[in-house]
Write a structure and sequence with these properties.
Blueprint lengths: L5 E2 L35 E4 L1 E3 L2 E3 L4 E3 L6 E4 L5 E4 L5 E4 L9 E4 L4 E6 L2 E7 L8 E4 L5 E5 L2 E6 L5 E3 L2 E3 L3 E4 L6 E5 L5 E5 L2 E5 L9 E4 L5 E4 L5 E4 L9 E4 L5 E4 L5 E4 L6 E2 L7 E3 L17 E3 L6 E3 L4 E10 L3 E8 L2 E11 L6 E2 L4 E5 L10 E7 L2 E3 L5 E2 L2
Parallel strand pairs: 2-5, 27-38
Antiparallel strand pairs: 1-2, 3-12, 4-9, 5-6, 6-7, 7-8, 9-10, 10-11, 12-13, 13-14, 15-24, 16-21, 17-18, 18-19, 19-20, 21-22, 22-23, 24-25, 25-26, 28-29, 29-36, 30-35, 31-32, 31-34, 32-33, 33-35, 33-36, 36-37
């Protein structure tokens, strides 16, 4: 990878800062205090940066094709942006204006403000670090020779309509490398599962080709000369997004957030309990005094302790205990669809956990604002409430 920066002249460089100083806090947790990326980078490092380099406010490190960018912002935050300016990672140091990032030879990446270290990512041992790299799948690595000593497993799983995937770009479903979707340098758009190719376009031999997630709803592979080589033929769907999912599928969603194309067959989503008894339906008028008055979900009439299952392969995105209205509840995300199960007596999964159709995620109960044992089921597609019985199939 090239480590030679391109430079835009700017007066008044900040003084360079030594890497070895007194340690303070290590940034962790949620991404906070984000600002827009700097409007004009002073130095742009393509692919990698040699150890011993200071990244000043406005400087940028990019992946080799420029689709992923790590920006040292003027507010002190070091932020990685993906395709469509999606935020993939941040140092959470936005309250440190004028701070710099130091890629030290001491096996560390430090955020420095003056002589104060405000954040550090490091690895103990020898020999020294040699370079920092931002790769075409959004991951970042601090290297010591050929050994990765610090890894940032950042990833992007979804890109909006109007985006392109340039040669060398890889999308991933999660932080692992098990589910990938890549635009290869030979012109092939390819899906891999655990390293095995499971789907690919027949477009080899087209160096410089790229894939476009079009606003008309089509996914198209174009040659470097902008000649169409392959298309999903879904232009009637309208622009939505392309998503690499944890259920081993790559799905193209249309304007209404419904599936228009996918690399693998879709089996559908299942009702969370092994019962067909319904005690309350979607949009029922529950009478004055109920908030909300109209029922937002469908109720499964089952006794306390009944197993509650995931609807398919998805990711647990929220687990909440003792909510005033829902009691204990779990939300699992399946592509553009989320399924909430509430009034649970017991939650058996954790946020971020990948689950499948037969994973028991909870037990039914009577918690929160509930008048008797049951499971309240809510479904949202693209963030919009939907009748669960029109989406979920009984087991």
């Amino acid at each position: 990878m090239s480590s030679t920066p391109s430079t835009v002249a700017r007066a008044g460089r900040l003084p360079r800062i030594a890497a070895a100083v007194v340690a303070l806090a290590v940034a962790a947790g949620a991404i906070v205090g984000l600002a827009e990326p700097a409007s004009a980078a002073t130095v742009v490092y393509k692919g990698s940066v040699p150890a011993g380099t200071t990244i000043y406010p406005g400087d940028t490190v990019t992946s080799p094709n420029g689709q992923f960018r790590l920006v040292m912002q003027g507010d002190g935050n070091l932020v990685e942006y993906g395709i469509g300016n999606a935020v993939l990672w941040a140092s959470n140091t936005s309250n440190q204006p004028g701070a710099v990032a130091v890629i030290g030879r001491n096996r560390a990446l430090d955020i420095m403000r003056g002589t104060t270290r405000v954040a550090r990512w490091a690895s103990a041992g020898k020999p020294q670090s040699t370079k920092f790299e931002l790769r075409g799948d959004g991951t970042m690595v601090l290297w010591s020779g050929t050994t990765a000593i610090v890894n940032w497993n950042n990833f992007q799983s979804r890109v909006p309509a109007g985006s392109t995937l340039l040669a060398g770009t890889t999308l991933r479903a999660d932080s692992s490398n098990d589910r990938t979707f890549s635009m290869l340098s030979n012109g092939v758009l390819q899906q891999r599962l655990s390293g095995k190719v499971v789907w690919a376009t027949s477009t080899a031999g087209n160096t410089g080709a790229y894939a476009a997630v079009q606003t008309d709803g089509n996914l198209v592979v174009y040659s470097a000369a902008k000649k169409p080589l392959w298309a999903s033929n879904t232009s009637r769907a309208g622009g939505g997004s392309l998503m690499v999912q944890v259920d081993n599928n790559v799905v193209l969603y249309g304007k209404s957030d419904t599936r228009s194309w996918s690399t693998r067959p879709v089996s559908g989503l299942f009702w969370p309990v092994a019962s067909t008894k319904i005690s309350g339906r979607y949009n029922d008028d529950r009478g004055a005094g109920h908030v909300p008055r109209y029922h937002q979900g469908t109720d499964a009439a089952v006794g306390t302790g009944t197993p509650v299952y995931a609807s398919a392969t998805g990711t647990v995105t929220s687990t909440v205990a003792n909510n005033a209205s829902y009691g204990n509840y779990v939300i699992v995300t399946y592509g553009m669809t989320t399924v909430l199960t509430a009034h649970l007596s017991k939650i058996e999964v954790k946020q971020g956990q990948i689950v499948s159709k037969n994973t028991e995620i909870a037990r039914s109960g009577n918690t929160g604002q509930s008048t008797g044992p049951h499971v309240h089921v809510e479904v949202r597609q693209g963030g919009t409430l939907t009748d669960p019985l029109k989406v979920l199939h009984f087991r």
